[in-house]
Amino acid sequence: MRAEYYQAINSEEIAIKLDKELGAISNKTFLQMGYFGANKMILAKFAFWPNTKYALFVDGKAILEEAIKNDSKNIELIFLRYPVQLNAPSILDYNQNVASDKKILVNEVKSIKDKDLKTRILAFLLSDGKLTEAERKAIQ
Fold first, then answer.
1. pTM of the predicted model, to two decimals?
2. CB 95 within 8 A of CB 81
3. At residue 124, does pLDDT exceed 90?
4. pLDDT band at residue 20, thresholds of 50, 70 and 90?
């Protein structure tokens, strides 16, 4: 699921496939829910019509936020939300958690046991995470 999600960021075909796979799961874990919501926001990027883009984004946002509400300590869910909020157009008004998510990620990244997840978070933070110099030093 994680690997497909990161491929979906640049591939509409994979995003559609992942949407179908996750949509078919009736009792999703909160992590599956989070990926389902985040992937819907990726699908919005590929949609042609503005109303379709908006609907997909809003649906995805609601699903991701519900997952985070129910599993607020899950660093992977926080990481799914952080890049979306950093890059969402201001008109969508989806940036309320940027500072708190960044703080959580910077403070917790070193203690993550899952090496793949840790590598992905570190790579993003160091390349696109909008870190201060102090935050950059703290995670290196």
1. 0.94
2. no
3. yes
4. very high
